[in-house]
User: Which sequence fits this backbone?
């Protein structure tokens, strides 16, 4: 006999997970080697894209009854979407896993505690950027969600907070009031999507994003009233809330005179670029078409030529960790590398499996600490092999995760994880000064 | 809980036996469309000895045992039709011995084909069989299906490289066949019997593979045509001209479209067919062979030809060809591919026949394949939920098999019989062939515990009469 939950789940899958998208998968397995969880579990099909798609279909068709093992298979998915570019059949895995999480969210009974957590997270902190100012708030998030306790048990939170402390030391004090940003009226005009995390923990990086664009004669506007992109909601099955944020953002950025809408967080960028798909409206599609990541925009506007040159051959190595979504969803991986190769004072060296997820994956590192730590450990092997001075990333989540990785391996005296904007900015400033 | 499950758990340890709903579902299918059946347990042994113990438990309780590599076979060969255990080799994926002096390598069955190729190539040697699925498939799966690849024309298929095997038989005996020997005629050729046996005669646990010197260089060319016939006759003429290229692959218009969507190779939109040509070997031979083949293509009306400028470009072209089947899947919900193989000289006729059959039954069929081997993959795009259409698809495939056999060919060149093609096996080998094969199976696996339900069907499909015209 199917339990009432199993029945509800099946109905919810039938309602939310599109059968046609499931049928696109012909089960060839080409995606398997690209999937970090398949590799890390010693090739467990249950934790592969093909397995998960089969599970979605099996739940929908009633071939499998919902239980903890099925739920776990979906929970362990990073949502990194490395399976998508690997799939010759064009299976839209990202959409499928989002629909799946939505279906689960709708059918699953939620405890009061989880309800509160979700409310605080999705309706509070990540709904409105104003509420998300300051590292303090971020730490408050961890405490409020009760995740801290679980995390502490496995020693992850300790690391995380050590690492936060460390970051506070390297970053200038996070100002609670935003600095006034000067923008000059120039020929190209872009709107800047500042991002929740970037606008709180990495304010300086945002400031430098504007300055770099100004150096290329770009006028930058920050439309007031922008919301969290909604990725966190979408990836957690809170689709209506993701749509709510999307609609607000589309209205906020609805101006014909913006040539581009630029962002410096790979995860947000990918989600913004899929508003068109999420909402299915022409306005949303137009918004999505304008989205561009900072590396691509810098390259497009001539940053490669503008970077200072030096004749000194340096032995300092810089390497790049792809942002999964920037690479797998937006297909951007050449541009950041081109920038790093052109930057003075360093030699660019590709690390093994740079395209593979670092295990950060939004809030995955908090929800699935074990798998996340395993993936990070593997990632760090590649880092250690190239022994860089700088590990450059394009997304705040990856940046934090790489910092944790460096800390965990005890390598912080010899290398540092930085955002690509900070790296390029420092190249411009330091070498202009003739360092 | 079932008693036998506990006994097997005792052998492999708790972590290596899975019975969760999610696991049973994830090991209930392979790459063949329309087949699904759940096992009772999924087991990952670590050694031949553990497999022997598992086999004895399965024998005692008459539990089916389904060996599974990466589940990429296209014949429902790893679907646990009668339940039982799915046996994995994810913990048996090591290279045991690389023997340069004897030009061979001993591996466990779970080694991924591409990893093996890379390993030996880094050491100046070459393992040629390269199925399109090589990035995912295992050597154990390749041996058990006797898989071919893009280099089959010149270098043959997997069986041509298997020198020896270790296997656990259904009665629990461990046998070693062949070895690191260039010659060996001691009794029946049991190695050959096990190769291509699709897990029905026991479990292969070690494989000794022949290696050859890595060719000095290679060169890749492409030719586009505005008719399928022009491409097919180019193939026949190349072979008639006594050139044996390493690769001679064919794709039709529909396949090219699908591959283009995935890879953006810049394939021309107006060509009806293309050939991918590769030669390897000494520099001069390679250049002159490729030049001659391109000339033959041009004489046969190729609309344009080109030679890859770099290894990278050549690799992208080959990757495009390897993705053909999965890329085609993007067009319709269900993809069913066949594996008809005819003598090389009949390739043009077979291509025409496939087109006629598709038209007659109003089904969407695109064709690509290892043209140089006479091995075509007519691929039908359909929707398994549409019963009426599926009947037409079945009818079309039955006629394609019949046509292949009529031209002196076979129903499968490299994908195996599995469960999917079992109703057609008799068409190819006749009732005498079936009874001999059944006698072999009966002698080795009297209780039918090794991959039951494969190879032999409960009933053979009635043969169709081909109507020409
Ligand atoms: C996109 C795509 C392209 C393909 N291209 C080609 C191609 O070019 N040429 C070609 O020949 N095939 C091709 N195939 C088919 C398939 O990849 C091959 O048959 C491959 O050899 C299967 O390997 P596997 O590891 O996935 O084996 P599985 O599918 O897991 O198993 C195949 C068979 O071998 C048995 N088996 C596996 N391991 C053992 C063992 N250790 N002992 C005993 N029995 C065992 C299984 O029971 C089963 O019957 C393709 C498939 C796909 C999806
Ligand atoms: S998702 Fe794509 S690559 Fe993976 S098994 Fe399905 S069709 Fe193949
Ligand atoms: S999104 Fe990432 S983790 Fe999830 S199935 Fe795809 S490749 Fe695997």
Assistant:
């Amino acid at each position: 006999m199917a339990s009432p939950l199993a029945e509800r789940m099946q109905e919810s899958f039938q309602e939310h997970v599109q059968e046609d998208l499931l049928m696109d998968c012909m089960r060839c397995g080409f995606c398997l080697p690209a999937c970090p969880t398949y590799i890390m579990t010693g090739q467990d099909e249950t934790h592969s894209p093909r397995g998960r798609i089969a599970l979605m279909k099996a739940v929908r068709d009633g071939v499998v009854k919902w239980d903890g093992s099925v739920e776990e298979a979906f929970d362990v998915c990073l949502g990194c979407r490395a399976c998508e570019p690997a799939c010759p059949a064009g299976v839209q895995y990202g959409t499928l896993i989002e629909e799946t999480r939505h279906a689960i969210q709708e059918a699953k009974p939620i405890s009061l505690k989880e309800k509160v957590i979700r409310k605080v997270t999705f309706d509070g902190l990540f709904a409105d950027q104003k509420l998300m100012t300051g590292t303090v708030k971020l730490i408050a998030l961890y405490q409020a969600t009760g995740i801290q306790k679980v995390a502490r048990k496995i020693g992850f939170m300790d690391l995380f907070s050590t690492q936060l402390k460390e970051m506070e030391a390297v970053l200038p004090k996070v100002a609670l009031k935003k600095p006034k940003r000067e923008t000059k009226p120039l020929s190209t005009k872009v709107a800047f999507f500042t991002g929740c995390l970037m606008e709180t923990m990495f304010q300086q990086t945002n400031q430098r994003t504007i300055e770099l664009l100004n150096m290329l004669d770009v006028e930058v506007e920050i439309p007031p009233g922008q919301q969290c992109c909604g990725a966190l909601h979408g990836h957690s099955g809170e689709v209506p809330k993701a749509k709510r944020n999307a609609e607000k953002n589309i209205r906020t950025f609805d101006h014909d005179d913006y040539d581009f809408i630029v962002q410096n967080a790979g995860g947000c960028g990918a989600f913004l670029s899929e508003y068109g798909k999420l909402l299915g409206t022409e306005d949303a599609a137009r918004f999505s078409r304008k989205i561009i990541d900072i590396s691509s925009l810098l390259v497009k506007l001539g940053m490669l030529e503008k970077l200072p040159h030096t004749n000194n051959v340096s032995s300092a190595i810089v390497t790049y960790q792809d942002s999964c979504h920037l690479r797998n969803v937006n297909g951007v991986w050449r541009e950041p590398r081109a920038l790093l190769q052109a930057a003075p004072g360093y030699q660019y060296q590709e690390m093994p499996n740079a395209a593979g997820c670092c295990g950060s994956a939004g809030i995955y590192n908090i929800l699935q600490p074990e798998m996340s730590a395993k993936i990070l450990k593997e990632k760090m092997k590649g880092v250690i092999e190239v022994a860089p001075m700088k590990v450059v990333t394009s997304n705040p989540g990856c940046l934090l995760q790489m910092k944790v990785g460096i800390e965990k391996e005890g390598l912080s005296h010899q290398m540092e994880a930085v955002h690509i904007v900070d790296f390029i900015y420092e190249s411009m400033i330091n070498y202009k000064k003739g360092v | 809980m079932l008693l036998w499950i506990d006994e097997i758990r005792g052998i492999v340890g708790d972590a290596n036996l899975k019975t969760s709903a999610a696991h049973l579902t994830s090991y209930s299918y392979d790459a063949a469309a329309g087949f699904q059946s759940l096992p009772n347990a999924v087991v990952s042994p670590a050694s031949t000895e553990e497999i022997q113990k598992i086999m004895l438990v399965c024998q005692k309780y008459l539990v089916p045992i389904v060996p599974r590599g990466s589940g990429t076979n296209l014949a429902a060969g790893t679907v646990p039709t009668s339940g039982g255990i799915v046996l994995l080799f994810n913990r048996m994926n090591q290279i045991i011995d690389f023997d340069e002096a004897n030009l061979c390598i001993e591996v466990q069955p779970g080694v991924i084909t591409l990893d093996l190729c890379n390993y030996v190539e880094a050491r100046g040697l070459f393992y040629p069989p390269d199925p399109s699925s090589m990035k995912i498939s295992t050597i154990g799966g390749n041996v058990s299906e006797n898989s071919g690849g893009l280099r089959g024309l010149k270098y043959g298929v997997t069986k041509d490289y298997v020198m020896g095997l270790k296997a656990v038989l259904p009665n629990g005996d461990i046998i070693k066949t062949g070895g690191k020997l260039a010659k060996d005629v001691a009794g029946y050729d049991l190695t050959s019997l096990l190769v291509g046996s699709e897990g029905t005669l026991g479990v292969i646990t070690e494989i000794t593979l022949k290696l050859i010197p890595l060719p000095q260089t290679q060169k890749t060319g492409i030719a586009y045509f505005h008719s399928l016939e022009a491409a097919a006759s180019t193939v026949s003429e190349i072979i008639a001209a006594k050139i044996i290229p390493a690769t001679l692959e064919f794709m039709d218009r529909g396949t090219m479209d699908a591959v283009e969507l995935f890879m953006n190779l810049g394939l021309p939109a107006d060509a009806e067919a293309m050939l991918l040509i590769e030669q390897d070997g000494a520099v001069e031979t390679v250049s002159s062979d490729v030049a001659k083949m391109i000339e033959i293509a041009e004489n046969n009306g190729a609309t344009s030809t080109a030679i890859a400028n770099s290894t990278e470009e050549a690799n992208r072209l080959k990757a495009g060809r390897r993705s053909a089947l999965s890329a085609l899947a993007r067009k319709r919900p269900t993809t069913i591919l066949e594996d008809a193989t005819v003598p090389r000289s009949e390739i043009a006729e077979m291509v025409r026949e496939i087109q006629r059959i598709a038209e007659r039954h109003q089904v969407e069929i695109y064709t690509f394949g290892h043209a140089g081997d006479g091995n075509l993959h007519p691929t039908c795009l359909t929707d398994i939920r549409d019963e009426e259409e599926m009947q037409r698809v079945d009818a079309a495939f039955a006629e394609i098999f019949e046509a292949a056999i009529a031209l002196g060919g076979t129903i499968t060149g490299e994908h195996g019989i599995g469960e999917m093609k079992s109703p057609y096996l008799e068409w190819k080998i006749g009732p005498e062939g079936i009874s001999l094969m059944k006698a072999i199976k009966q002698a080795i696996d009297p209780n039918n515990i090794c991959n039951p339900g494969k190879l032999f069907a409960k009933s053979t499909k009635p043969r169709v009469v081909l109507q020409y015209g």
